[in-house]
Amino acid sequence: MPLLSVGAAFSFLIMMFNLPLPGGTTGHAVGAALIAILLGPYAACISVTIALVIQAIFFGDGGILAIGANTFNMAFVMPFVAYFLFNFIKGNSQSKKRTYLAAFIAGYVSLNIAALFTAIEFGIQPLLFKDASGLPLYCPYPVSVAIPAMLVPHMLVAGFVEGFVTVLVYGYINKTSPDIIDKGENFKTKPLYGLLAAMIVLCPIGLLATGTAWGEWGSDEIRELIGFIPKAMENGFNFNSLMPDYTISNIPEVAGYIISAVSGIILIFITFKFINSFKRSSE
Amino acid sequence: MDWLFKEDDYVPVKDNSRYLGKNIFIFSEIISKIINGVNLRQSNSILSANPLMRFILLISTIILLSLSTKVTFVLLTDVLIVFTVLAIVKNNHILKAAFTFASFTLIMLIPSILNGNKLNAIIIVLKVFGDICSVSILTSTTPWNDIIKVLKFFLVPDIFIFVLENTLRFIYLLSNISFETLCALKLRSIGKNNKKYTNMSSIIGNMFLKSKNMSEEMYYAMECRGFTGEYEIKTRFHFSIADLLFATLIVVVFIFYFTMGR
After folding, report:
1. Do B167 and A12 touch (CB under 8 A)?
2. Is it the case that residue A221 has pLDDT exceeding 50?
3. For residues B80 and B76, what is the distance between their CA atoms, to the nearest angstrom?
4. Is the predicted ipTM greater than 0.90, yes or no?
5. Residue stretches of chain B with pLDDT short of 50
6. For A138, which of B124, B162, B178 is closest by C-beta distance?
7. Can you give the pTM of this predicted structure?
8. Range A2-282 has CATH code 1.10.1760.20
9. Most B CBs within 10 Å: which of A10, A220, A225, as the mutation test of the B interface?
């Protein structure tokens, strides 16, 4: 348990470390991949969630209602993708090169997948919320704009920062005290962590999904997400403003179909979860 | 001995180490924020209201702000919030920070505005401004332990409160360590540093190892003292005039929303 608070403090501070980028600018890593590899994905999930909560409530960086979307992307998607990718590439080999390559790829890919999720969340906003004249109420950029806007800077810059931090810190800890790194053993013996992680992550999504039923889905978190972005994903921002010649209303029908399917699945999943928890509390 | 009297003509190669200064600044900022956040004194009688009421006011303001699609409601709430900042909290940093965030949002929305989506974009910018102000009002007027107390009221599980509380402590301790290490690195950095990434990741790695030791020590110390992981609230709820004021504000915000916000 105390390890969780340390993990949370650690992931909060990683986000604060500025790393030099070419051209004299600086950028920072999210660190979720690193923590997932070091402490396991469940601990990483809780740690990053708490780091984000503290950032939002106590430091005022990032929205309170956006915590749901933020934790889903950065505390749930990212560590799990990173952890499984790392183990998949590393396999059973003891080769150092392969391990380090696995760490780099885990950092790089997991950040980009998290960015992709964020982009999709942005992109479905104009589909879901329109005023009487059909103009988008919240985030006005459709999927076709949001995805390249988020992914290009992440693939070109932020992903590399994340990858390098992951592999270098992992290498340092592997060299100085290799026994500390999570071997995946305590992973099965502590299902509590998993349950807790699921609860923490599902709570905010539940909020979000019940909103769908009322046709208000994501209204809170997207506006908050916008407030959050300057801190976390500045690149995505500038890129967006550099693209004035797009069309708002040209969303392919297929995309809309897929998105409603996905939100439907989430809704069903949440409903079941909700019924279960209701049953449990009444017992 | 001759070398001692010779003039040295060592000119260090210039290097861009802005990131170091920036990091040092950020960590000192975190440390000071935590110290201020925990030690907040309530000088104003209005601000001595129960943290729970303030929290409810904050959450309802944010939710209603985000639900509303009417510019009048959003604008009015923003004006009220700015008035609160100027009259009660008296902290100009809040307005500055909110203004920065709002401008970023505006920049991001420029393409959309050019496409004719003017009013909605303005509403979003106003909402961002209002939200950031209201969150900052809470954090800058409420001691952080009080905010954690509020979480207990909302039936947040103890394990979450425990981790949250200790995370704040660890952030403070680890920030101090990183601050000192970064200062040490800065003092020793002369000329061009070609291993910036290795340096930074070593600091991060070291921080991790230290924090791991600290957590184990703390865990044993707490077990020795019989901590069971349960939190209890010992203070009772006293309903004061300040609380009444906040309760009225909550009602007013709701009335505003239902009369002109929807």
Report:
1. yes
2. no
3. 6
4. no
5. none
6. B124
7. 0.70
8. yes
9. A10
